[in-house]
Request: fold
Amino acid sequence: MEASILLQVKRYAGQLQKKKKKKKKKKKKKRGTKCKKKKKKKQNRKPEKKGECSYEVQQVLHRNNTELHYK
Reply:
């Protein structure tokens, strides 16, 4: 009984510190699929045929006025 009272007094005085419990680190869960998706290769644009324009003419209606926009 006396020993427990002495421990309490020492703790109160700050001479004795309680042992801190170490926290276990949680492992992060991996998101998404386990297998990686393969990236698709970009295909080269089709070569232009001779005699064709390199741009496309697109007709756009804008406030009842027809304007030609070039791509």
Observations:
- The first helix runs from residue 2 to 13.
- The mean pLDDT is 66.
